[in-house]
Design brief:
Blueprint lengths: L1 H23 L13 E7 L2 E5 L2 E4 L4 E5 L6 E4 L1 H5 L11 E2 L4 E5 L4 E6 L9 E6 L1
Parallel strand pairs: 1-4, 3-9
Antiparallel strand pairs: 1-2, 4-7, 5-6, 5-8, 8-9
The protein binds copper (II) ion.
């Protein structure tokens, strides 16, 4: 019984040390090397494409959509994307004309987005989250 209590204190002690290390692992809230990255998808007035149109990122990364005044970036379903539609995906991201918004992608998968007025010109894009 005495040994068991001793073991219990040892385990609790180790857990406390573990938490202490974690708390001091990221001073000043700095993102550690290998942590989330912010990528940029932008547009230019007079240029009917996203820059870049297709990007591959890691789960937990962010994409900052920087839209100029004549473009938006609206998430759509795969079906809408493949059929040249413009209907926004319910619950999807929606960056308005001239707006800049940072979206976090936590779940791996393929995300589709379009610039609604310029779908006929092929202004569409994807975010692949690995
Ligand atoms: Cu556009």
């Amino acid at each position: 019984m005495k040994n068991l209590i001793g073991l219990l204190f040892l385990v609790v002690g180790l857990m406390t040390v573990g938490c202490g290390d974690e708390a001091t692992g990221s001073p000043d809230g700095a993102v550690p090397p290998g942590g989330p990255t912010t990528h940029v998808v932008s547009s230019e007035d007079g240029n009917l494409s996203f820059l870049p149109a297709d990007i591959v990122i890691a789960a937990g990364d962010m994409v900052r959509f920087e839209m100029t005044s004549t473009h938006n970036a609206v998430e759509v379903s795969q079906d809408t994307y493949e059929n040249g539609g413009i209907d926004a995906l319910e619950g999807g991201f929606n960056v308005g004309f001239g707006e800049t918004e940072t979206i976090t992608f936590d779940t791996p998968g393929l995300y589709y987005f379009v610039c609604q007025p310029h779908v006929p010109a092929g202004m569409i894009g994807t975010v692949t989250v690995q």
